[in-house]
Design a protein that fits this description.
Layout lengths: L1 H21 L18 H5 L1 H61 L1
Helix pairs in contact: 1-3
Length: 108
């Protein structure tokens, strides 16, 4: 599960870098052929609506990334809790076995 999430994060990171690199081509939302082309009719038309579309898209991806990071943090917290409980269970088992050994040594 965590491997799948990490691959997704890597994919988003690369996509984010590509979006940042596209800023070097020109201003996004300024119309076709100026770095904002190919993103649909609104973005191709340029102007204020094109800029707004780019801003909305970036906001959507940031929001999505935040939600995924929060889910990843929650997953890791749950994993930590699970492992702590497993440690406690195993420690009780160790204590139980030590008690049996003490009892066997005492019976000798």
């Amino acid at each position: 599960m965590s491997r799948f999430l990490l691959r997704g994060n890597l994919r988003r990171c690369i996509a984010s870098q590509i979006r940042m690199a596209s800023d070097q081509l020109g201003e996004l939302g300024k119309g076709a052929g100026k770095g904002g082309g190919g993103g649909g009719s609104v973005r191709e038309a340029g102007g204020a609506f094109g800029k707004r579309e780019v801003a909305e898209e970036e906001r959507y991806f940031r929001q999505k990334e935040r939600a995924q990071m929060e889910a990843l943090r929650k997953h890791h917290s749950e994993e930590i809790d699970h492992h702590k409980k497993e440690i406690e269970r195993l420690q009780k088992e160790i204590d139980r076995h030590k008690g049996k050994i003490r009892k066997l040594n005492h019976d000798d």
